[in-house]
Structures are given as C-alpha cells and as structure tokens.
Amino acid sequence: MKLLLIRHGESEADLLHVHEGRADFSLTENGRWQVHKLAAFLKENYKIDKLYSSTLKRAAETAGIIGEALNLDVELRGELMEHNNGALAGLKYDEVEERYPAPEGGYKMHECVPEGETEIEFRARIEGAFSRILADNGYGTLAIVSHGGAISRMMQAFFRLPFNVEHYVLTGDTGIHLLEDRGTQRIVHFMNSTEHLRR
C-alpha cells in the first residue's frame, strides 16, 4: 500500500501572521492555485483509490479540489485535524507572547496551553486515526490531506517511533510525502515534494 500525505495549500492565517492550529481559516487565492497545480500533478502521476481529509476548511477545500479533479469522494475525518492549540488559535504571534508566554524550556509532553491538548494527546489522536485508515485499506494508494503538525505525527506513527522521540518533518504548502507499507518494510520514496508548483 502506498500513502500520499499531503499538506493543505496556503491559508488566510499565513497572510494574517496568526497562530492557526484549530482556527478555521480558508485557503487564499494563491492557496487554491497551488492546489489546482497539485491536483493536476496527482491526476497525471498517480491512481489514488481513496482520499481522506481533516475537517478543517483549509484541508477540506484542498481535498475537495483534488477529489473533483480525480473523480474521488472525500472521506472527512475530524481526528485528522491539526494540534488543538486552544486559546492560541487565531491570535497574532506577539499577542501570544504577551498573553500566554511559554514556560522556560517550552511545554513538556504532558503540558499544554489553556484549552488545548498535550503533545501526548495529539500524538495518540493522530496515531489512532492513522492506524484505523491503514487497517481499513490493505492495498492500493491512499491520499490523506492534513496539516503540518499532524503529518509529522503520522510519520512518527508510520515508523513506529516511541512517544518520547520527537522527530518533526517540515511540509510546505501542498507538500507531498510518498510512503509505502510492504508489510515487513516501510519505505519513504520522497518527502515534502512541491515540484508541481514549478511546472
């Protein structure tokens, strides 16, 4: 089974310079252009059998454009949403520093911002969602449209890394990671490809 992990296109939060997370911003005009380029690239290069997406607007809009181009229904799953950053969602960065300064050394894995979720809770949620998707599909090619933080946790789950190992994967707007599960082997074909934006 092959897995395409895809980050949404540019969102309005990027232009406003605010914390996004659970704040539900739509794609920008540029973001929609990025996604149309992505959809054309996927149609030309992959036969995708199932398409999943986070329910947040920026991901759902991205998946909707892909689904329309590939004639695929989108299965929306709330558990694929980005990290719940609680009270920080939608606030400007300088406002967060003033109102909710992080503790010295940052938040520990069992700590979180007000009204948010801990790193442990985030990882458990994403890993559960990812595992259920894999269990429901034993073959073919799947695409999951989600968010930068969520994709990092899916990669951690894919390689069965322990919770106390913090590896982060950077993913650009509409960046694609191609993974493959061969049963006894788990393979990375490429990471964070945005070549479709240069075509």
Automatic annotation (TrEMBL):
<feature type="binding site">
    <location>
        <position position="58"/>
    </location>
    <ligand>
        <name>substrate</name>
    </ligand>
</feature>
<dbReference type="InterPro" id="IPR013078">
    <property type="entry name" value="His_Pase_superF_clade-1"/>
</dbReference>
<feature type="active site" description="Tele-phosphohistidine intermediate">
    <location>
        <position position="8"/>
    </location>
</feature>
<feature type="active site" description="Proton donor/acceptor">
    <location>
        <position position="82"/>
    </location>
</feature>
<dbReference type="InterPro" id="IPR029033">
    <property type="entry name" value="His_PPase_superfam"/>
</dbReference>
<dbReference type="GO" id="GO:0016791">
    <property type="term" value="F:phosphatase activity"/>
</dbReference>
<dbReference type="InterPro" id="IPR050275">
    <property type="entry name" value="PGM_Phosphatase"/>
</dbReference>
<dbReference type="GO" id="GO:0005737">
    <property type="term" value="C:cytoplasm"/>
</dbReference>
<dbReference type="Pfam" id="PF00300">
    <property type="entry name" value="His_Phos_1"/>
</dbReference>
<protein>
    <submittedName>
        <fullName>Histidine phosphatase family protein</fullName>
    </submittedName>
</protein>
